[in-house]
Design brief:
- The complex is a heterotetramer.
- Chain A is an all-alpha fold.
- Chain A has a single domain, classed as Orthogonal Bundle (ABC transporter involved in vitamin B12 uptake, BtuC), CATH 1.10.3470.
- Chain A has twelve helices and two strands.
- A two-stranded antiparallel sheet of chain A has the order 1-2.
- Chain C folds into two domains: 156 residues, Response regulator (Rossmann fold), CATH 3.40.50.2300; 144 residues, Response regulator (Rossmann fold, 3-Layer(aba) Sandwich), CATH 3.40.50.2300.
- Chain C contains ten helices and 13 strands.
- In chain C, the strands form three sheets. In chain C, strands 1, 2, 3, 4, 5, 6 and 12 form a seven-stranded mixed beta sheet that branches. Chain C has a three-stranded parallel beta sheet with strand order 8-7-9, sandwiched between helices.
- In chain C, strand 7, helix 6 and strand 8 form a beta-alpha-beta unit.
- The longest helix of chain C is centred in the first third of the chain and has 32 residues.
- The radius of gyration of chain C is 24 Å and the shape is globular.
- Chain D is globular.
- Chain D has a single domain, classed as Orthogonal Bundle (ABC transporter involved in vitamin B12 uptake, BtuC).
- In chain D, helix 3 packs across helix 11.
- Chain D has 13 helices and no strands.
- Classes of the chains: A mainly alpha, B alpha/beta, C alpha/beta, D mainly alpha.
- Chains in contact: A-B, A-C, A-D, B-C, B-D, C-D.
- At the A-C interface, helix 1, helix 4, helix 11 and helix 12 of A face strand 8, helix 7 and helix 8 of C.
Chain lengths: 313, 510, 344, 336
């Protein structure tokens, strides 16, 4: 291939990478908090859907994607409250509750979408969203111009949100207590800190960010909702957390990697002359996850108390 | 004397199924070292956890420096200058010393901007009190003794007036222990009040100003240490005269049953834990392994039991090569093992007593036929064991988790001993059980020896080792640093060896 | 308390009894309602009833929606009693739904997709009085009749427009199945009839819902130089229109099955309408009258001008383009153009 | 206390509120749902047909969950089983039914066991979290199936993404004509009983349960923990694969891209709700089968969107969790 073609090919892939990575970034960053505090939420897909639907409907009725985003966060917080109540206060099994969240998330959003929007199909398609903000001059840079300086606000925000997340986790007293809670909750208890409350807070952060990740799909990346729009991204985010070693920046870069695969997959198909079945490209992120497990050959250093309810003695 | 710093008034605390504290009243004076003495299960730790805010009393009042206080969490206690060093350390292994020390110190929104300042302050503190520690080291890299230093530093960093220590010497050598006791005395001299939970009479005599004896959730008495002696205290603690002199030690020793040559074993982190030990055990003798816990005894036990691979060396059991063979095969050769932590390994808590009785034999005739469990046979077997070993239970279909620690241990002993083993490995057999069960368990161990079994006894309780063993091997950092007859008069030498002085250097010093 | 919760399979027996009790309770409580509910439905045997098996949400946009709209149209124009059921994408469940409708006396049941074919065949023998229509199928066996919209024809027309006006085309499909691949073959043939070297690239999303992926696929095609991007991916297809809307004028698409102009008002060259409903109304009218018969499967194409047509937006295509399109329509109807000719 | 029944009641209540909100009459909707699930012989048969894969998968998952391994991958294992069964059913057309049917079912079972065992292997050998790997293997199985039916295994005549039909001799006999109920349902009951006996009455099951509660105690008892985990994954995967084979041989007779509407995920709920007891799974499987089956009829006759059933199933799980049904399964570690 012509080198110029390859360069433009890569530039376009890079631009798509960041956009496609964004929902993973938000969702997995939140899950890092949740798991660092010892709570595994496999219901991310359901929470993302609820975020996506809430953002969509509120934006539709208010005309403001900012309100939509705020509402999605509120929806995420509500999910988090319920999740934490069940798994932290009632010490219910986290896998069960997560699985239930996925069922309810899909069922509830689909049911409500039909109940509320069934008569408004046509109009439902038009509403404002976060549109790309071009940064003057920089966006004209060759190669990286589009990738870095021609995105929407929610995409631009990701490194800053991750930075903030890493700061909170590693540089604040709260973060210290979160990291301790997932590892050795009894110590946290003995230090006079409320284990339950810390887990509540972490789960709330996790669900709020998952909802933001879902909202991104309906008010930033596209401006529409459809049933099951998250298309399995919540599950990918779970894998991202593991491969990213439970760290915010790890989650960020692994999200970008998965975003890259996703973009490459869509892109390679369009290039004539490449006849790999598209299913193979689709399978790449999942295969990669398995390969990572095999090649690291080391027990993933998951928080030791992950998934174990804490019972003060 | 001086003023009262802490006053407890009729503290009652119940847990589902048990009453831990039945109305305990107590006064602690400022600047004293006050021992809380009692058997396991007497309610010492629970009472102090209430003072530290970990538990809340069902009824009763706490007065601190004259004021009634309401402690809802350790935070309240820490704020008032009450600190506690727990028996099981409360440290987060993947955090650094400094991070562990400031955990819970600041409101959640506080930005931990200058960790180096915190670290410097810790360094200063550690120099001032002679508790050497690197504040930047992650806790999981520290030895047990160092971890305890971190715990004490944590309390000092918080600026405590009242320090509670829960059995702090359990993990220390006698020399380290006396160092700690000296340190506490010095601190008390500076005005620190210390509450010292223990069941070791020597320590009480050595360190305390006054001692309160608890039994069965009640206060028996508070006495000035100067007016007490160990015999009186033991009587108060147990409620009757105790004759700690144990069954006779006359075994007829026979052939070599276990022989270990140049054995090395790695721990879970793949670091060498046992480094080339050689010893043997004959039938009809009890060999005790002494040492501060964490010096390779656990890894040795696991390797002997076929539960972890050996790195180098040989184990021979009844003339057969026995390293890296399965627990199953060992068991068939006549090996029985009472593991260190029965909750982790010895029993399956949610299973019934009957199910626990067949842990090794679940697929052996007659408990299983054609792959199916024979519930009648199993029940009958369990009933038989429970009766013979005096286990208190409502029925063998009761879940074992509902039994007391002593009765759980009796089930483990019963299961291991009824097979008439040729070699019995017992690891911390009486840890955490009441004195009645302790006596029973010790008698059973001695009876095995008398019946001709070879017994290897690992214990961090020197009293127990003296009472049962014929000879002692002393472990330090994965090596056998000495072998002595199990005579109490040698405690000083043994102590020094437990601290790493080998026999040669020891005799050289002398 | 906690200890009592320890697991033990003996306690499970209690739970089993509860389950038995629930079942009994449900049974009793529903008996009354169930019976009366059933009774309402019996004496309406002369009502004309039409049922639909939809492979996805009826508001799914695109493919699933056209069947639902068809059903509504039949209700409105013929006064039929209608019903639909969204069977999950599991062929194992289809047969039951067909049987339920047929046994309730539905005269006409539409299975909206080729995947319903086996199930309909299995049921049809038992219900000779019911017509089973299968969308995008070529079957004709007794009372099971395939009904197909030949989307390759309108896509052929779009291909002509793209090749005459643009620099390159991109096609974004949901999943690689015959209705989609056929449409894309038609498009390619249309393009080739104008300019054999005109670049076309194709991407399948592997999803009918992932609008974000569709959008990215469209954006990358634009980056590659395509200026006509056409989706055939149901709900996910909206992502394509959005990509065009954001990219700005000069990039074109067509609405698929419906009017999608509002989603990218400046980028719609036109809309491909598929009034499948009208086609079905035509059939249903005959079924109701009892005189429906056919010698083969049914295929709607541009010959059925009230069913399938492409409408260009005012002033966006030149007269020359429109003329070529009209000519192509004539050719297709006359049979001189085979829109499904194999691509070399 | 009756947590499971209370959980169902709460779920129906929540569903009812949603129905009211959307302008339906809950009582009428539920009545229709009931009739749809049990109202006639055919409806009953359809309910049992839907319960069949759920009972199978649930029984297998009960074994896995009791053994302490979180197999979230039954969906993928079902696909793996369906693919292998279809292949066997297409290739070995010459065999008589009494040979072919067992062969096809075994093929499905083996394939599911391998797919599940793969996650078990990754767990035992590399310490890979089975929760993550089984989720990944789900996606891989579904994508691979999509590739197979659009590519190498596509039917010869048509161009539809489906395989050819399996041989007549490979099809499961029906047991309740004129309904479609086939012998697979009886098979599922048999598997439930067999897994119950395995778990609670056999020495192997004793070993597995010990592994599930306390791996250390299991090692101490001379049980090979890794082999136990691998076996548990292979058994649950094999049974899920069998479910896939039963779907193909009993109902669809060929492979499609989407052979399961999420039975593998419902199976998790079915197993957990039955407290991982395979006998209980028979009842919870029928409950969930009835919910699905009834909701379809509810949509047909009352035009209530059938997605409601997901909400009801989810809320059943949530309220069962809240009521403490699942705390019964505990491990040694959680005891202090």
């Amino acid at each position: 291939m012509d080198p110029l073609v390859i360069v433009s090919f890569l530039a376009a892939v890079l631009a798509a990478t960041w956009r496609l990575a964004t929902p993973f970034i938000y969702t997995s960053l939140g899950e890092v908090f949740s798991e660092r505090a010892g709570v595994l939420n496999i219901g991310l897909e359901g929470v993302m859907l609820i975020g996506a639907f809430t953002a969509f409907s509120i934006t539709f009725f208010t005309g403001s994607p900012v309100w939509g985003l705020a509402a999605a966060m509120a929806g995420g917080l509500t999910c988090g409250l319920l999740f934490a109540f069940l798994t932290v206060s009632l010490k219910a099994n986290q896998i069960v509750v997560g699985a239930a969240f996925n069922l309810v998330g899909l069922g509830l959003t689909s049911f409500l979408y039909r109940s509320i929007f069934s008569g408004r199909m046509e109009t439902a398609r038009e509403y404002a969203s976060f549109s790309p903000l071009e940064i003057p001059l920089l966006s004209r840079l060759p190669f990286f111009g589009e990738a870095l300086f021609q995105q929407n606000l929610m995409v631009y925000a990701t490194p800053f949100v991750v930075l903030a997340g890493a700061f909170v986790l590693y540089r604040t007293a709260f973060g210290l207590s979160v990291r301790s809670t997932g590892e050795h909750p009894r110590t946290v208890d003995a230090a006079g800190l409320p284990v339950g409350l810390i887990r509540y807070a972490s789960v709330l952060i996790g669900c709020a960010l998952a909802a933001v990740g879902g909202a991104y799909l309906t008010v930033a990346h596209t401006n529409q909702f459809n049933e099951g729009i998250t298309s399995g991204r919540g599950f990918i985010a779970l894998a991202v957390v593991v491969i990213g070693r439970w760290s915010p920046w790890g989650a960020f870069f692994i999200s970008l990697l998965f975003g890259f695969f996703y973009a490459l997959q869509l892109r390679l198909q369009a290039v004539s002359g490449i006849t790999i079945p598209y299913q193979f490209l689709q399978a790449l992120p999942y295969l990669l996850t398995l390969v990572v497990f095999v090649t690291l050959r080391k027990r993933a250093d998951a928080p030791s108390a992950l998934g174990v309810p804490y019972k003060s003695s | 004397m001086s003023e009262t710093i802490l006053k407890l008034d009729k503290i009652v605390k119940t847990f589902p199924g048990t009453v831990a504290n039945r109305g305990i009243s107590l006064e602690i004076r400022k600047g004293e070292i006050h021992c809380l003495l009692g058997e396991n299960g007497a309610g010492k730790t629970v009472l102090m956890s209430i003072v530290y805010g970990l538990h809340q009393a069902d009824s009763g009042h706490i007065f601190y420096q004259g004021e009634p206080i309401d402690l809802r969490s350790p935070k309240d206690a820490i704020k008032r200058g009450i600190g506690m060093v727990h028996q099981h350390f409360m440290l987060v292994p993947n955090l650094t010393v400094a991070e562990n020390i400031i955990l819970g110190q600041y409101p959640p929104w506080k930005v931990l901007r200058r960790m180096d300042q915190v670290e410097r302050r810790i360094e200063k503190l550690s120099q001032k009190f002679g508790l050497k520690i690197d504040p930047k080291a992650p806790v999981h890299r520290l030895s047990v003794g160092e971890q305890q230093r971190v715990e004490i530093l944590k309390a000092l960093y918080h600026g405590v007036d009242l320090l509670i220590l829960d059995e702090p010497t359990a993990v220390l050598t006698p020399q380290e222990s006396s160092g700690l006791l000296r340190f506490l005395k010095e601190m008390a001299g500076h005005g620190l009040t210390v509450i010292f939970i223990t069941h070791k009479l020597d320590e009480v005599m050595q360190v305390s100003d006054r001692v309160t004896v608890l039994r069965d959730g009640r206060k028996v008495e508070t006495v000035d240490t100067s007016e007490a002696n160990p015999r009186i205290l033991a009587k108060l603690m147990v409620g009757r005269e105790v004759f700690l002199e144990q069954p006779s030690k006359k075994g007829t020793q026979g052939e070599e049953v276990l022989s270990v040559r140049d054995l090395s074993v790695d721990d879970e982190r793949r670091l060498p834990a046992v480094k080339g030990v050689t010893f043997s055990v004959r039938s009809g003798e009890i060999v005790g392994i002494a040492g501060v816990s964490g010096n390779g005894q656990s890894e040795l036990a696991l390797a002997l039991a076929g539960l972890s691979p050996t790195a180098e060396g040989e184990i021979e059991f009844c003339g057969e090569v026995a390293h890296n063979i399965s627990p199953r095969k060992l068991s068939r050769l006549g090996f029985a093992h009472v593991p260190e932590d029965r909750h982790k390994m010895g029993i399956v808590l949610p299973f019934t007593v009957a199910e626990n009785c067949i842990l090794h034999d679940f697929d052996n005739h007659p408990y299983a036929r054609n792959g199916f469990l024979q519930s009648k046979t199993i029940t009958a077997h369990a009933n038989d064991l429970a009766q013979r070993y005096d286990v208190r239970l409502s029925g063998v279909e009761q879940r074992i988790g509902e039994l007391s620690g002593g009765n759980q241990q009796k089930i483990v002993m019963a299961r291991e001993l009824h097979r008439r083993p040729r070699l019995l490995l017992v690891n911390e057999p009486t840890r955490g059980i009441d004195i009645g069960a302790t006596e029973f368990v010790r008698r059973q161990i001695a009876a095995q020896r008398d019946a001709g079994a070879a017994v290897l006894l690992i214990s961090s309780d020197l009293e127990e080792l003296f009472a049962l063993s014929d000879r002692l091997l002393i472990f330090f950092e994965g090596r056998i640093v000495g072998e002595t007859p199990a005579r109490k008069e040698l405690i000083e030498e043994i102590g020094l060896m437990m601290a790493g002085k080998s026999m040669e250097s020891f005799s050289a010093e002398k | 308390m906690h200890k009592r919760r320890l697991h033990n399979f003996f306690t499970v027996k209690n739970n089993l009894w509860h389950l038995v009790l629930i079942s009994l309770g449900l049974f009793l409580s529903a008996l009354a309602g169930g019976c009366s509910g059933g009774a309402e439905k019996r004496d309406d045997s002369d009502v004309f009833k039409v049922g639909l098996l939809s492979p996805g949400p009826v508001n799914g946009q695109g493919w699933t929606q056209i069947a639902y709209e068809a059903l509504l149209k039949i209700e409105k124009e013929l006064g039929a009693q209608i019903s639909y059921v969204e069977v999950e994408q599991s062929p194992a469940l289809f047969e039951r739904a067909f049987r339920d409708y047929a046994s309730q006396g539905y005269q006409m049941v539409l299975g909206h997709g080729f995947e319903f074919q086996d199930a309909a065949l299995a049921v049809a023998k038992d219900y000779p009085d019911t017509w089973f229509f299968i969308s995008s199928s070529k079957i004709h066996e007794g009372n099971v009749v395939g009904v197909d919209s030949d989307s390759s024809q309108p896509f052929y027309l779009m291909g002509i427009a793209a090749a005459k006006m643009g620099r390159g085309a991109g096609l974004i499909g949901g999943v690689e199945i015959p209705p989609i691949t056929n449409a894309f073959i038609g498009f390619t043939n249309g393009v080739r009839s104008v300019n054999p070297d005109f670049p076309i690239s194709t991407t399948y999303l592997g999803s009918w819902t992932d609008a974000a992926a569709a959008k990215e696929a469209a954006l990358s095609m634009i980056a590659e130089g395509a200026d006509f991007i056409i989706p055939d991916a149901d709900a996910a297809g909206s992502g394509v229109y959005q990509a065009l809307n954001e990219t700005g004028p000069g990039y074109w698409s067509f609405g698929i099955y419906n009017d999608y102009t509002s989603q990218a008002p400046n980028n719609m060259m036109g809309n491909y309408f598929n009034d499948y409903g009208q086609g079905l109304v035509n059939i249903a009218r005959q079924v109701r009258a009892g005189n429906f018969e056919t010698q083969s499967n049914l295929v709607f194409g541009v010959k059925d001008r009230d069913v399938i047509w492409v409408e260009f937006e005012e002033g966006r295509a030149s007269a020359e383009v429109l003329e070529s399109v009209e000519k192509a329509i004539e050719g297709i109807i006359a049979g001189s153009i085979n829109t499904l000719a194999p691509i070399r | 206390m009756a947590p499971p029944s209370a959980a169902v009641a709460v779920a129906l209540l929540v569903g009812g509120i949603l129905l009211l909100f959307a302008g339906y009459s809950p009582l009428k909707a539920y009545a229709v749902m009931w009739t749809g699930a049990f109202g006639s012989l055919n409806n009953l048969a359809e309910t049992l047909l839907k319960s069949t894969p759920l009972i199978l998968i649930g029984s297998g998952l009960a074994v896995a969950f009791r053994s302490g391994i979180w197999n979230i991958g039954a969906e993928g294992q079902l696909y793996a089983g369906a693919v292998a069964a279809t292949l066997a059913g297409i290739v070995f057309t010459g065999l008589p039914a009494f040979l072919l049917v067992p062969l096809v079912l075994m093929a499905g079972m083996l394939s599911g066991a391998i797919w599940g065992g793969l996650a078990g292997f990754l767990k035992v050998r590399f310490g890979a979290s089975e929760i993550v790997t089984t989720i990944m293997l789900n996606f891989l199985a579904i994508i691979a199936t999509s590739y197979l039916v659009t590519g190498p295994m596509i039917e010869a005549v048509g161009k539809f993404p489906q395989t050819a039909q399996i041989a007549d001799a490979a099809r499961l006999p029906r047991i309740l004509l004129p309904t479609r109920l086939h012998v697979g349902f009886l098979l599922s009951l048999g598997v439930a009983v067999a897994t119950y006996l395995l778990l609670f009455k056999s020495s192997r099951g004793y070993a597995l349960r010990t592994v599930g509660i306390s791996p250390d105690a299991a090692r101490y008892a001379g049980i090979n923990v890794g082999a136990g985990l691998l076996a548990a994954m292979a058994i649950s995967g094999g049974v899920a694969g069998l479910a896939g084979a039963v779907e193909v041989t009993g109902l669809t007779f060929r492979l499609y891209q989407e052979i399961s509407p999420g039975y593998g995920f419902d199976g998790i709920a079915v197993a957990l709700l039955a407290n991982n007891n395979p006998i209980g799974v028979i009842f919870t499987g029928i409950l969930f089968g009835a919910l699905r089956s009834g909701s379809e009829v509810m949509q047909m006759n009352a035009q209530v969107p059938s997605v409601l059933v997901s909400v009801i199933q989810g809320v059943v799980l949530l309220s069962a969790a809240a009521l403490g049904v699942f705390r019964i399964t505990q491990t040694n570690n959680q005891e202090e």
